[in-house]
Structure formats: C-alpha cells, structure tokens
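Journal club prep — side note

Before the paper discussion, L.F. wants everyone to see what a predicted structure for a comparable chain looks like in token form. Sequence:
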Amino acid sequence: MSLLEGIIGPIANLIDKIIPDPKARDAAKLELIKLQGSQDMDALRTQLSAVLAEAQSADPWTSRARPSFLYVIYVILLWSIPMGLIAAVAPDKAANIALGMNAYLNGLPEPLYALFGTGYLGYTAARQWGKSRGTEK
C-alpha cells in the first residue's frame, strides 16, 4: 500500500461518515481524487515522510522528541488534579498558583502552541500510517 492510498482511503471513509448527502459526498470524493495528483498532495506526502523519518530514526533523541513533548503536556494537564485538592484546602493558595501558571503560560510564544499542535497531529498521523502498514503495533 502506498502512502497515497494510506491517506486517501481513511479520508474517503471519513467523508462517507460526515457528509450525508450522496451528491455532496461524491463531489467531495471527486475533489479528493483531483487532489491526489496535485502539488498539495505532493507537499503532504513530503511532510509525512519527514515525520516518519524522524519517528523511525535510530537516534533516541530524534525518535523520542515528539512523544516526550506530549508527555510534558500531559503532565501539565494532569496537574489540575492536585490543584483541585489544593483549592479545596486552601483556595487562596490555589488562586495564587493559578495566577502564576496563567502568567507563565501566557508568556509562552504562540508559535510554541502551533508547534505542539503540529507535532501532536504529525505524530498521530505517523503512528496511524505505521499501524496501517503493519510496521507498528
């Protein structure tokens, strides 16, 4: 299965589920087929191949960078559990912690958030593609 087939098949299935009108669904699939030979599809293929090359790298710093970044984000999100407990015991301390965290997170540059979103989606797409090829579990 080529990379192109691995992308088009799931998107076509998604179109079937999202668009109830048969005419609109067929039009969307026709646009997808047109996209298949376009420069946009070539660009998408290039981007996915770069993500896959990073994920399959023998260098542990390269291959684990994206998942490690996700783990950091998960820890930040899970911090809400102890914050809830702190708020129950000492609401003023929890408010001060929250103010400090908000100030810190608002201080981070917007491109960092875009990088997280791109990395998360790229990692997810690469994992799914690897699973569909049978190279990953």
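L.F.'s comment for the group: The helical segments are 3-18, 22-36, 39-55, 60-63, 65-78, 80-89, 91-107, 110-133. Keep this in mind when we get to the figures.
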